[in-house]
Structure to design on (724 residues):
């Protein structure tokens, strides 16, 4: 049968319908893509991370301004992961393809140079996937590559780089036929040894009037005396006066004059000289300290001034022992008080900001520890706001996000804990007071903040594992509950139920001693809930109010009813069981979409470690099996998050074959369990680690621990996960 002919009007309607459908589908997909949960930055590291050594820098004109390249031994900076080298544009850091070398090699960039439109990095590093990219590499703006093939030459560690004309010179270690040389040259095509070669280490190099100037620890070149400093014109070496008897650390050109720093005793420079200029015939001291052990370690030229850094007490009477600037006539202090002038490896002007790189962290006036600072009103401040450490535990209560931060008052001393609150994305001390041991639980009740844990005092006053903050100070809320000296006592959970304060944990004092692991405050004293609960191992781990019932989970048994095992309910008068209880420790209880979910320490219920109460029995939660020693569980409106101990395996089958290694974190939308991203990585080790804590706050999970990146974002010590 012939089909009916479609009219033009009908065709137009059909096209309009299809277009509307496609637009709607596209919008739905876009909304879904936008709502997919992701890791989000919750902290910016204020400097270059572990081991915090920034050894060198290079300021380069790029595009519309000056950018700063830094090199050293670090694995991350700000919010980017990068090994040994990174770039700062005045606003943000970028990582140059993740840096050079491998995470586990622990290399270091000692020198950076700009050569033929590329950035050259030299130091001690290696790429296990590219044997030729060892100790020196070139960045073209997109990828790192070897600087040619060394052929028969083995390039050891690089200490300094310098461009003279069309040649790149590198000092360090170059081995040819078992002979070690100190200076090599790259002409854009191949490497060669500079002949003759100095007999000792070359620490620094610069270009001056078309010649290569080198300084260091050598005293001869080709059998001729060259005391610590020499000039090379591309063909032969020439002396620069009689040199120095100790060593040269750095070389710069200032107002067309060659300047050296180091420990510069010599024929024309007295003991205590930290900087000297070349007059064309001899060396003239411009910086003399009254201390014979002074040393100028590095120099920078910025804004027509010479900056010298090192250790030189007595150079500037009103200034610092570690840094000074020279205007061509006299020395001046750099910072207002000289505070934090130590450990500087260089200084550069980036836009309007004067940036200093450092070989170790300093503490700024605002309390931040950082190795990247800027001079503002005579004081050194961090160039980025952020934390150099994070909370060891996070808590959400009554719309407030709090964290427990560990700290030592003296190096190697005891660890204390201080409560902070996150306000506007910034962590601020909740109070100045310190707890002498761990904080485990935090709950706001009727305007008072209750804090539980393993501590025995706060602010120097007794607080037996439970403290109350009334807006002015702390009081001991645990008296009569926990023994003031018992090491096994602790408070794991705090809740308000039927107008009373209820806590769970392990107790050994007063009316509850030895009778229960959950207790309530009746307004005068602590009392067990009816006949109480008896500890098996860790006592009560979790409390949750569900309707008119209090749900209690942990490691305990009822003294009479064997069905109340590790989990039970309390109605204000009596205890009741949930089926036959659970066969192993309940580490946490949450409600998710109206259902009661429990995390247990072992996969002993239907071969999984996360179970759901159906109203009559416990069943596996989701269609994926979870195998792990679980540590905790939290839930938002959209997801449930679990934390394992050291491993967490997911499988669609009763047997773990095949399985997915979820590292230590997994989430579920109610149907199946999935790994939380690529895992939580500590870049210092490097290894995947178990976060110390997480909390559900404003429909987002806040995850805390000794980590730096999730593979998606770099957010040291604390990161968020949830809808964008």
């Amino acid at each position: 049968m012939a089909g009916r002919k479609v009219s033009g009007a009908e065709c137009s309607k059909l096209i309009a319908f299809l277009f509307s459908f496609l637009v709607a589908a596209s919008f739905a997909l876009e909304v879904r893509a936008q709502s997919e949960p992701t890791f989000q930055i919750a902290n910016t590291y204020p400097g270059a991370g572990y081991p915090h050594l920034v050894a060198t820098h290079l300021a380069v004109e790029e595009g519309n301004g000056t950018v700063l390249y830094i090199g050293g031994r670090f694995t991350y900076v700000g919010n980017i992961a990068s090994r040994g080298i990174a770039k700062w544009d005045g606003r943000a850091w970028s990582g140059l393809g993740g840096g050079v070398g491998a995470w586990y090699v622990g290399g270091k960039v000692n020198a950076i140079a700009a050569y033929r439109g590329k950035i050259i990095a030299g130091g001690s590093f290696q790429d296990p996937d590219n044997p030729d990219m060892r100790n020196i590499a070139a960045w073209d703006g997109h990828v790192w590559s070897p600087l040619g093939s060394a052929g028969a030459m083995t390039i050891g560690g690089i200490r300094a780089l310098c461009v003279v004309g069309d040649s790149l010179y590198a000092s360090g270690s170059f081995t040819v036929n078992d002979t070690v040389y100190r200076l090599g040259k790259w002409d854009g095509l191949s490497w060669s040894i500079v002949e003759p070669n100095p007999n000792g280490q070359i620490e620094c190099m610069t270009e001056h009037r078309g010649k290569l100037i080198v300084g260091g620890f050598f005293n001869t070149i080709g059998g001729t005396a060259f005391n610590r400093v020499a000039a090379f014109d591309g063909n032969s070496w020439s002396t620069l006066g009689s040199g120095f008897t100790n060593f040269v650390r750095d070389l710069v050109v200032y107002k067309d004059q060659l300047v050296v720093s180091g420990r510069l005793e010599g024929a024309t420079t007295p003991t205590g000289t930290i900087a000297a200029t070349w007059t064309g015939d001899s060396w003239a001291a411009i910086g003399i300290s009254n201390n014979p052990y002074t040393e100028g370690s590095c120099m920078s030229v910025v804004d027509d001034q010479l900056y010298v850094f090192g250790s030189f007490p007595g150079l500037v009477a009103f200034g610092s022992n570690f840094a000074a600037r020279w205007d061509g006539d006299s020395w001046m202090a750099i910072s207002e008080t000289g505070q934090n002038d130590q450990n500087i490896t260089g200084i550069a002007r980036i836009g309007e900001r004067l940036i200093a790189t450092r070989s170790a962290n300093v503490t700024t006036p605002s309390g931040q520890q950082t190795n990247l600072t800027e001079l503002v009103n005579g004081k050194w401040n961090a160039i980025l706001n952020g934390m150099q450490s994070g909370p060891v535990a996070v808590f959400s209560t009554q719309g407030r996000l709090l964290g427990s931060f560990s700290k030592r008052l003296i190096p190697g001393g005891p660890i204390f804990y201080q409560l902070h609150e996150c306000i506007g994305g910034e962590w601020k001390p909740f109070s100045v007071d310190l707890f002498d041991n761990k904080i485990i639980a935090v709950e706001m009740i009727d305007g008072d903040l209750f804090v539980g844990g393993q501590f025995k005092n706060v602010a120097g006053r007794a607080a037996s594992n439970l403290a109350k903050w009334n807006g002015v100070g702390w009081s001991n809320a645990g008296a009569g509950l926990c023994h003031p000296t018992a090491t096994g006592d602790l408070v794991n959970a705090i809740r308000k139920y039927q107008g009373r304060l209820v806590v769970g944990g392990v107790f050994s004092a007063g009316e509850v001693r030895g009778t229960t692991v959950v207790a309530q405050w009746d307004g005068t004293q602590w009392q067990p809930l009816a006949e109480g609960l008896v500890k098996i191992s860790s006592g009560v781990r979790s409390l949750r109010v569900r309707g008119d019932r209090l749900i209690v989970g942990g490691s305990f048994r009822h003294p009479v009813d064997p069905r109340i095992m590790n989990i039970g309910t309390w109605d204000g008068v009596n205890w009741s069981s949930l089926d036959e209880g659970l066969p192993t420790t309940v580490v946490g209880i949450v409600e998710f979409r109206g259902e009661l979910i429990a995390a247990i320490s072992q996969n002993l219920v239907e071969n999984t470690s996360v179970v759901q109460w159906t109203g009559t029995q416990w069943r596996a939660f989701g269609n994926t099996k979870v195998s792990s020693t679980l540590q905790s569980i939290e839930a938002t409106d959209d997801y449930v998050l679990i934390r394992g101990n050291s491993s967490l395996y997911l499988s669609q089958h009763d047997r773990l074959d095949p399985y997915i290694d979820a590292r230590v974190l997994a989430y579920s939308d109610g149907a199946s369990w999935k790994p939380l991203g690529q895992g939580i990585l500590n870049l210092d080790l490097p290894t995947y680690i178990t976060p110390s804590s997480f909390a559900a706050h404003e429909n987002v999970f806040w995850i805390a621990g000794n980590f730096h990146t999730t593979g998606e974002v770099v957010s040291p010590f604390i990161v968020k996960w949830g809808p964008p």
